[in-house]
Amino acid sequence: MSTPTLDQADTTATDAATITATFRIRRFNPEVSAEALWEDFTIEIDPKERVLDALHKIKWELDGTLTFRRSCAHGICGSDAMRINGRNRLACKTLIKDINPEKPITVEAIKGLTVLKDLVVDMEPFFQAYRDVMPFLVANGNEPTRERLQSAEDRERFDDTTKCILCAACTSSCPIYWNDGQYFGPAAIVNAHRFIFDSRDDAGEQRLEILNDKDGVWRCRTTFNCTDACPRGIEVTKAIQEVKRALITRRF
Ligand code: SF4
Ligand code: F3S
Ligand code: FES
Predict the structure, then answer these.
(1) Cβ < 6 Å from ligand 2: which residues?
(2) Which end of the chain has fewer CB atoms < 10 Å from its terminal CB, N or C?
(3) Does domain 124-139+154-249 have CATH number 1.10.1060.10?
(4) What's the predicted TM-score (pTM) here?
């Protein structure tokens, strides 16, 4: 018997690592039917691959009409949040081996936003709430000739909320948001927090008033779904509580 070449040996190792996995995907195409339906796709895949890799394999090899958003594939752009086995996650950060591939893996669009096609939702209401909280530095007067200085302690105050990638996993896991979609939602509050507690910013009061609205922070019922869903590990509920406290004490 001849000794396998390096290439042959690699191929054998890769094949041995694959499993057969079924992805049960909630499909919706308004041009075909008003009803969404579940469709199964069974593929051979290395369980160390990510759900995004499986979706690519399905799209490129089985059904080119499967529609989903993705860009960076590395947990940075926030475009591929979806419900995987009933939980909001980023497809590019979810390893197949970690989500029980012995059973069909369900994949569906995030909740609370209108589904446009398959796994793609209309993000406009989400981004409108984000825009409404003024997610940018407002600094009045005393224009510095160099950068605006800040102590390490002051920077630490809002460090956690700078990590948001606007994936909507938090907002679309919040039962209050599912209710009527009018609530600003945790992502908008996280991004308000990022500036309210920035010592260089001068619009904290303004942002607090915006969130004092009937659809603002007071609608949060401390459910913690948002914190559990955040792929960046942001303590979302804690940030919301800090904004509520700042509204009461007017200290931030
Ligand atoms: Fe995504 Fe977390 Fe930002 Fe919410 S707070 S949008 S879950 S990164
Ligand atoms: Fe919703 Fe998070 Fe509050 S899930 S109710 S925003 S703690
Ligand atoms: Fe960019 Fe997943 S594709 S976060």
Answers:
(1) 174, 176, 186, 220-226, 236-237, 240
(2) N
(3) yes
(4) 0.91
